[in-house]
Amino acid sequence: MKQVVSFDDVLAEIAVLVRPHFGKGRTAQYIPQLAGVNPNQFGMAICTIKGEEHAIGDADVSFSAQSITKLFALGLALNSIGDEVWTRVGKEPSGTPFNYLSQLEHEEGIPRNPFINAGALAVTDILLNHAAEPDALVRDFMGMLGVAHLAIDEDVAVSELETAHKNRAIANLMRSFGTITHDAEAVVEAYCRQCAVTVTCRQLARAALPLAARGFSPLIEETIFPERLTRRLNALLLTCGTYDSVGSFAYRVGLPSKSGVGGGLVAVIPDHAVVAVWAPELDRFGTSVVGAYALEYFSQLTNCSVL
Ligand code: DON
Question: What local confidence, expressed as pLDDT, does residue 4 receive?
């Protein structure tokens, strides 16, 4: 990437460019606590591998990380059992919504990838072998990398657990195939609690920084992932990070990215920086509408793309 523009100028320009895109999506309606979030919020933060930070708008306001936590849970699972993870879950784009059920039955309980809910539930099941509370493990891992004390929003966790009928169905189906080994309800509970971790754009950009720095966190000066694993995590983000819109997302943004139904998005510019954006209104794929536009403008204005 050739950075010929100042990131502060880029962020200021993006904040103007995204304005017409508010009102085009809806907050996550299926989680009552998220449905009521003020939709008119927008934050964006950039953290470079040199440790420089640039931020605009609501970049220091906490939001529900939701599926973005799946990236960190996967990193923990791969760091702890390595390639054995891939005996439990695939590495292919699913072409289906993140909470799709019937593909799982056809494919005998093996989820297509670790970012759809089925795959994330399998990862939680793996983490349950190593920790009594995988949700706290993921929260603390993200907090350590983000140089922050992160919380689990108990109201969001309860709200999602009360309405997690589809995730219960997925977990029980996987239990019937033996691809989940713990009690399905315990897996769903840990997964929902993990999704309820709250984070700000600035903390998220910091937390994902090892993915831009070949696995090293310049902030805490520690190697978090081996370099080869870092490349692979970025490959999974690029091919599976935004579910059944991953092709058009790569076409528009061209960066390995992960979305969450809290309206957050994180994108990696290998060897350069991480960009995190938050705006709560979602498209039908569960991706922030304004966030996706913000990343699209970012890659256009900076010429940042891995493609
Ligand atoms: O499983 C769910 O429905 C949520 N806790 C997480 C979904 C999510 O964030 C999908 N990503 N955009």
Answer: 60
